[in-house]
Structure prediction request, 740 residues.
Amino acid sequence: MNTYIKNEITLMQFILVIHGLQVGVGVLELPRKLAETAGTDGWISIILGWILTTIASLIIIQVMKKNPHGSILELVTQNFGKLIGKLVTILFALYFAALSVIILIRESLFIQKWLLPQTAFPVLLLLLIIPSYLIVQHNIRVLARYSEFIFYISLWIFIVYLIPTKEAHLLNLLPVLKDGMKPILQAVHSTLLSFIGFEAAFFLYPFLRQKQAAALGIVVANTLSMLLFLIVTIAAFSFFSPDEITQFKEPVINMFKVIEFQFIERLEIIFLTYYIFVISTTALPLLFLTVFCTSKLTGRQDRHSRHLIWFFSALFIYVLMSSPTFQQNSQWQGKIANLSIFVAYLLPLFLWMFLWVKHLFQRRELH
Amino acid sequence: MKRLSHIFLVYLFLITMLSGCAEQLPLEDMTMQLMLGIDLSKDNNLIFYETNPVFSKTSKKSSETIEVKATSIRDARNKFDTKVKGFVNGSKIQVILIGKKVLEHPDWFSLFDTIYRNPKFSLNSRVIAVDGPLSSIMYYQSEDNVLLPLHLKTLIDTNNRRNSTVQTTLHELHRQIYEKGITPSISEIKDGTQLRLTGTSLLNHKGKHVHSFNISETALLLILQKEERGEVSFTHFSLPINNKNELFHQDDISFSASNIKTKIKSAYHQNKFHFDIKINMPIYLGERMFPYNMSKNEKNFKKMVEEKLTKQFEDLIKIIQAKKIDPIGLGLYARAHHYAEYKKVEDEWGKALATSTINVSVKVDLISTGNVK
Prediction:
């Protein structure tokens, strides 16, 4: 319990870690994915996804309030016993490990495809994991400061992104609700996946200094991400024709491709290089949560860095032996998607109902 | 111990970065394509041209041009490689020229696949149609030895600012080809006694060239597209007054218009689309070749200008409908406001537009008549 108090994070850091987890490599493809299922009405799905996310995150905070000085791992151990507690810790460790592996590999694939096509894949991964190690080996406070810092210094990307919208055709967005509600509801699945990351509140809550503001914090984080997704998507929908947007795998990068200044022509190269920072605010907290769970398992909180070295070595050896592809990575993503939905949206609900029922029974026993 | 391991990690990081040095490529060993040309030979073989700058003090020419017979842009690159000194690199292409002979065959756009597939290509290259054989333009050498690709790029950009041609980049071409509610329009040049811009090539939805607009028609098209930039200048604009002179066009005026407001309304009834285009033009008179009592007859003057402009727009739309194309993008309005009806005809939108009614009305505000009466 001491570890939580020693490493308190501020409300702003809490917000920006969650926001950073939500905004990453997925944003580059989001407009295309939405357009594939819901056409130019896809932006409505973002708002629907945001409503569901806000409900789920408020439930998470309600659940965590029951045990404000521990993460979900302590909560489960207290309510279900040590054995199940251990099992849940292993499952969470595996879940976060899988997410981090997928994101690190996808990030390297992007760098290789757009920026450094000649460089060997393991070298790119190595270049990513060395600085990652240097940050994640510290405590959560360092990580939270990092996320906050990156958020502030990346704001310019957003402004530059809006430059091509001077050629936007707002007529593309009309008519609203062109094919009814059904495709919009189908696309909500993709938007829920973009919001994945707020479940980190299960682990961040005990670190938060101002616990009374946790609900506010998580809603602000979700809203921030929602506004970003919404503006990025609407800009892309009005910029590309609805008949062509599904042709581009990463429409967001293509928007940067069109920007041309007198002094620089290929702006997407600079954007993508910089975007590695933004992606790192997704990958690093996930890596931290992975080793947080594993070191809980061994009962030694000071073993973060050692576990991290094992994890990275395993990942590096895996990459040396196999050559990952986009297709394979997307398959993995598809496989873990449903698990993510369960962990982020259903698990809080189950836990909440369980605690509520338990509370009811306890009250009855008292009387 | 921990400090030592950190130092080790930082060194490892720096050493890994060195891997980039192995693939270094000096500028002299690179052949940077600035212009790419595609044409059909007499016996219907695809010919590819490229122009690249020459970095050499001894060379008199600032650029060299190479032509090869090939089946695709990638195939052409391999064949270029066998003819030039350095590695051929397409990421700096400024201008892409397409011969009209290529444009006469539909589906030529599939040649461009690699440009959109390969992340190295820039999507800002200007696409230009060439009236006549491409070879005369590719080997065109101006007297002051300017790099032709840069010359062409500037030619298109400045003329677009003057509203004499469209500015269709590779990205915009992709949009116009895939968007069902619009047909592509690209800049057109011609090599006669001197290289010059002739206006805009209009393609149908499959990419086949069907018509060309000259410079003044292009200005009208840009107004209808709401893509006009700054001032639109109208010259040699003869009014119906009986003041004929054999040598001097003494019935002409010239004027410029800025802040033009184009409003397009659409409707659907009797199985037909209806478009109502209202254009509001504040104009500044720049030239009047005949005496006219403006203070007395200003209304009449405005009316003459309005009628003539309306006639010009109507003629333009008649051509568009006759050729079954839609360079204006009226399909976007149809989709936005009459989605169900549009969806039925979107694959044949040009035909649907040909049967619809389009009304144009022009309103002119005479802002200034200049310093003399």
Remarks:
- The radius of gyration of chain B is 26 Å.
- Chain B touches chain A at residues 6, 9-10, 12-13, 16-17, 19-20, 23, 91-92, 116, 119-120, 122-124, 169, 171, 174-175, 178-180, 182, 329, 332-333, 335-337, 339 (CB under 8 Å).
- Chain B has twelve helices and 15 strands.
- Residues 111 and 343 of chain B are 29 Å apart (CA to CA).
